[in-house]
Amino acid sequence: HSCMQTRVAAQSGRLPVHVKWYNEPWFTQSGGMPSHMTGVAEKLRDTGYKTHFVGKWDVGMASKRQMPLARGYSTSLGYFEKANGQWGSRCLECEKCNVGELKDLWDTDAPAGTDNVNETEFQEFKFAKRIKSIIEEHDPKDPLFLFYAPHVAHCPLQVPEEYLNKFSFMDAAHDSSAEGCSTGGHPVLGINIEPDRPQPPHWLCRRQYR
């Protein structure tokens, strides 16, 4: 497994071999980025950057020191564990631990409000709204560091019905083929971040497990 290691490397600025070898449980002290290490966002914040995090964290949450706010992000909207439901933010790892059904969606320094954990809106759309509001409200005189870690490529493979229907002509054997991609910009945000630069294909999962 390389998910946690890659995320810790991105947040710490260190190669995985120097910071995290194993994909340890996210709710343990050893899971994620060691608490004594300084994060990239902490350094940028201290030099005047406005720092924001949106999406999948998976860099630790057993202590407040491991959470985005302590890692240098002035605001954050995301989930801590390795997978949660796209509708309702249901914690999937918690079910494996027999601790009941929990919600896993955090807004900076507290659990996300009811508007962000409702059962009717796709979670990536919530993230898209937050990203757009950060950009629109940002003062261009200040440097900006916005870290977006998409949920859409992770289990559970869930997409809204209208996205699923776009690939109704495909059978299961073609789920991972090049026919299942779009090339008009980001499939969730719907924008081309760099208008003058051709954008790579973005894979859209055909399956929906809701």
Give a description of the structure.
By secondary structure, the protein is α/β, with parallel strands linked by helices. 22% of the residues lie in helices and 12% in strands. A five-stranded mixed beta sheet has the order 4-3-2-1-5, sandwiched between helices. The chain has a two-stranded antiparallel ribbon with strand order 6-7. Strand 3 and strand 4 form a beta hairpin. The longest helix has 15 residues, at 123-137. The chain is globular. The two termini are 25 Å apart. Mean pLDDT is 75; it is low at 173-210.
User: Hey, roughly how much beta strand do the residues contain?
Assistant: 5-15%
> Roughly how many Å apart are the termini?
25 Å
Strand order of the largest sheet: 4-3-2-1-5
What gyration radius follows from the Cα positions, in whole Å? 18 Å
Task: Report the major sheet.
Answer: 5 strands, mixed
Portion of residues in helices?
10-25%
- Element-level helix/strand string: HHHEEHEEHEHEE
**Low-confidence stretches at least 5 residues in length (pLDDT < 50)?**
173-210
Give the overall pLDDT as a whole number: 75
Classify the secondary structure makeup into a structural class: alpha/beta
Total strands: the figure is: 7
In short:
The chain has 210 residues and is an alpha/beta fold. The chain has six helices and seven strands.
Topology:
Layout (H helix, E strand, L loop, with lengths): L2 H10 L3 H4 L20 H7 L3 E7 L18 E5 L12 H5 L9 E2 L2 E2 L11 H15 L6 E6 L11 H5 L15 E2 L19 E2 L7
